[in-house]
Amino acid sequence: MKLLLDTHILLWAAGEPEQLSTQAKALIENSENQLYFSAASLWEISIKNKLGRADFKVDLAVLRRNLLDNGFEEIAITSAHTLAIGALPDIHKDPFDRMLIAQTAVEGVTLMTADSVVAEYPVAVVRV
């Protein structure tokens, strides 16, 4: 399975694995799954870190390097993704989550999230 990790799942996997559910850990550790992260998540982390959010305190360059070194693939933000946002229903207002949902639809991946509102979108989602 191709799994795009939402921002909190990504942060937990990288620095607080005890926050992950048993299902999330199993999916991440399954070598048959291809793991992805989005440039949108790094953007979100950067902004929220600057705003002083304790749950977003991370060295972004180190995080990115570690993700790549551990086999994650990065999904850049493209115009196809931004166009797809316009077609999304207004279920969730967070622009970062909306980008992840659009990327999920365009790239044909499954979004792994703990967010019940994100899981309401008509895209491939696994809620963990």
The oligomeric state of the chains shown is: single chain
Biggest pleated sheet = 5 strands, parallel
Strand order of the largest sheet: 3-2-1-4-5
Overall 3D shape: globular
> What distance lies between the first and last C-alpha atoms, to the nearest angstrom?
15 Å
Q: Let me know the average pLDDT.
A: 95
Q: What's the CATH topology name? A: Rossmann fold
Q: Could you spell the SSE succession in H and E letters?
A: EHHEHHEHHEE
Q: What is the CATH homologous superfamily assignment?
A: 5'-nuclease
Task: Report the sheet-strand fraction.
Answer: 5-15%
Alpha carbon gyration radius: 14 Å
Give a short synopsis of this structure.
It contains six helices and five strands. It is an alpha/beta fold and 128 residues long. The mean pLDDT is 95.
